[in-house]
């Protein structure tokens, strides 16, 4: 059974940090790009705003998070991490990881697999 399980969300004050995790199982992790998406209250899901490609090791960030977010991968654990710093109230959203059998440059908005999401709330 394919599973993506996010964790690490929570409530943090503006300027704070969180590290999200995306643990994968049930598929060949090395063939996939893992992207992070988010859905703010009342808005459509957006992303991927960050991505890491297991196939070529490349990473990707949108301008909205560049410099504040770092994506990394623990190959031994089939887990991708998203370190988020300098959080802002507008970062409040449900954060999802998604997996697609491609590289980051080709990753679409609807990956092959989704996690269940983890809530991030940033207070002002």
Topology, pairings included?
Blueprint: E1 3-7, E2 10-13, E3 18-25, E4 33-39, E5 46-53, E6 59-61, E7 69-74, E8 79-84, E9 93-100, E10 113-114, E11 118-123
Parallel strand pairs: 2-11
Antiparallel strand pairs: 1-3, 3-8, 4-5, 4-9, 5-6, 7-8, 9-10, 9-11
Fold and architecture overview:
The protein is mostly beta strands and 124 residues long. 0% of the residues lie in helices and 51% in strands. It contains no helices and eleven strands. The strands form two sheets. Strands 2, 4, 5, 6, 9, 10 and 11 form a seven-stranded mixed β-sheet that branches. Strand 4 and strand 5 (46-53) form a beta hairpin. The protein is globular. The mean pLDDT is 94.
* Sheet of most strands: 7 strands, mixed
The DSSP helix count reads 0
The number of E-state strands comes to 11
Low-pLDDT residue spans? none
Radius of gyration: 13 Å
Q: How far is the N terminus from the C terminus? A: 40 Å
Average pLDDT reading: 94
The proportion of residues forming helix, as a percent range, comes to under 10%
Shape: globular
Computed structural class: mainly beta
* Beta-strand proportion: over 45%
Helix/strand order:
EEEEEEEEEEE
What's a concise summary of this model?
The chain is 0% helix and 51% strand. With 124 residues, it is mostly beta strands.
Tags for this model:
single chain, 124 residues, mainly beta, 7-stranded mixed sheet, 4-stranded antiparallel sheet, globular
């Amino acid at each position: 059974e394919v599973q993506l399980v996010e964790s690490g969300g929570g409530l943090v004050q503006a300027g704070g940090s969180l590290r999200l995790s995306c643990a994968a199982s049930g598929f060949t992790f090395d063939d996939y790009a893992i992207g992070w998406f988010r859905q703010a209250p009342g808005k459509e899901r957006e992303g991927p705003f960050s991505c890491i490609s297991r196939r070529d090791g490349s990473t990707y960030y949108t301008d909205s998070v560049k410099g504040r977010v770092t994506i990394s991968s623990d190959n031994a654990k089939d887990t991708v991490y998203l370190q988020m710093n300098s959080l802002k109230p507008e970062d409040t959203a449900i954060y999802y990881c998604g997996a697609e059998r491609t590289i980051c440059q080709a990753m679409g908005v609807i990956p092959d697999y989704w996690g269940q999401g983890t809530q991030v709330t940033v207070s002002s």
